[in-house]
Amino acid sequence: MTTADPRPARGPRTGPGARASSTAPADARPDTPRWIVPATLGAAAAGLAVSVYLTIAHYTQSVTLACPATGAIDCQKVTTSPESMLLGIPVAVLGLVFFAAMGVLGLPAAWHARAPWLRTARLLLAVAGVCFVARLVYAELFEIDAICLWCTVVHVLTIALFAITALATAATATLAEPA
Amino acid sequence: MSTPHPAAPGRGSAVARRRVAQQQATAVKRRHQRNTAYTAIALVIALFAALVIAKAATGHHSTTASASSTTTSPAATAGIVRQATTVPASVYAAIGTGGTAAQAEPVPSGQQAMTENGKPEVLYLGAEYCPYCAAQRWPLVLALSRFGTFTGLGLTESSSTDVYPNTNTFTFLDAKYTSSYLAFTPVELYDRNDNPLQTPTDAEQQLLQTDGQGGIPFIDLGGAVMLRSSGYSPQVLSGMTWTRIAAALTDTTSPATRAIVGTANRITGQLCGLTHDQPAAVCQAPEIRALEGTPAS
Residue B19: closest CA among chain A residues belongs to which residue? Predict the structure, then answer.
């Protein structure tokens, strides 16, 4: 006598009636809604691209940020301000590392993985990113007194990654991990 | 003969019930976490909205604000001050005059030597709005740091509406200077928005009007030599922040560094004339000896 394996197949479920969370047992690998991976990787890749640009501009005198300098908006003033460094490390580099790490943690294999520590690490990294962005926005508004448009793009992408990560973590929660 | 397993149907139904229960529990857990996520996202958005609203409520861009100086964090300010006051001797030696023109001239009134507690006195009269003062503070800080120690140096920018707007610089407003060789008396007459800041003594005002012909920056070195205006054009610092200027102070090819250090060497040469070549480590350096104590330098 044979019985059907109740677990979902390992490959992507493509059938017309296949609902992501309707058949998988709660203790199986978390099934991942389709929007999660492209959303995470898209935001991480965009953030990485802007961070690379800001990093190159930081280290290369010949590269000037394509950004108006109208007083309130002044990328150069922000990216060369004292607040553009943290413990001697340019924040552009920190952003680059952040988005690279989020990109790795946003790979399909990482989202499919069961390990609670991985999910926790991804969420904590996203929270840390938002906290750091809040500090930078405060510095722009109240200390440097100028706004950097490219930095704002990075800030928005960081917040977007936080929102994606928070919702995706909720959507892939299992009973096996802590609430 | 085989008999059916008596427990099979009951076990299958128990597994199914358990699975359904787990699915329901998972759905409840996910719904709960989703609500938590929505709340967190809303809080984050509210936080950033609050920052923007607070900024809008407290004032516009600082070009119209009344603050006399920037609010750069103390740690960042300290880092910039440290870089400006610890320029390596090798940089001074490599740059020499840096292509700057001689600026010092004899004090025309021929006043007696200016001293304070027996030490030659350096008097600075300037204003935070003034772009030439902004340019001159950099080499003055560098030069004086070779003879003593500053505390309380702050950062500011020149006026946003004057020529060479927003030139990044130091302010002597709250600065204190201690030295075994020299006394330093700075007076910042106006803030960057042209509001009165510090009041000079009658004697200082007299010096400014007679010897300085009312122009700032005016620097009197011990009553013997004076510096009027800046030793280089503020244009050199255009678009550069304090951080970039300070970070470049070890780059002997940077135009800003050559202007600042070159002018600092010229001032140092004059100061060595006042201190009788003390400290020797500074005043015996070849690039300083070549500039020492002659008004034409």
Answer: A25
